[in-house]
Amino acid sequence: MATNTNNNGLFPTILASTVHDIKNSLGTLLELIRQAAVRQNGQSDSLDELEFEAARINHSLMQLLVMYKVDSQKFSLVIEECAVSDIVNEALDQQARLSRLHNIDLQLDCAEDLVCYCDYAIVSNALAAVLNNALRYTKKAVLISALEADGYLIVSIEDDGQGYPDYFLDADLNNPAELDWVSGNTGLGLYFVSEMARLHKNAGKAGYVRVDNRSRLGGARFRLFLP
Question: The whole model's pTM is what?
Fold first, then answer.
């Protein structure tokens, strides 16, 4: 009788490879959608929605790949001096089409001379994912702001929606066991951002994330703290 061998590291590797292949195909699909949108002179709301949802899936796949690399100890940040306004505007640009599509007022409060040391691509994509979520649940407006306080760069994303559900507010975002993996509303994006923040370290401090419903606009507030 043949004996099955349990290769503990095989399935995650196969999964990561499959996700990578899907991400490549999705990139091709996104480019085809954008070409179709150009031919429509940007007048198709359906194409805008399709491009946005495809980009959202692409973000999720990117997060899965990065988390796999972190878990496999194959990931390292690329730390460089960055203008915070560039990071924030990159996130805004990625979500601009959705905000226009749904007539959401995107507000920005960030000094042009504010700088930080971080992984530009990781942080801008993480903020874009959080901004995406805010745009989906807000009513009319989203405010993104940045400032320095107590040795941290603090980037806030606030909306005027219904706020975060109680289980998000009560959960430890660094502990995947506390996330709701059953309902489908897992908070994967917040977990990813929290993990990426934690990897940013400076002068004995590590980055972290906080969420609450104390938005100046009346809804949810997300805050990213980078040392």
Answer: 0.79
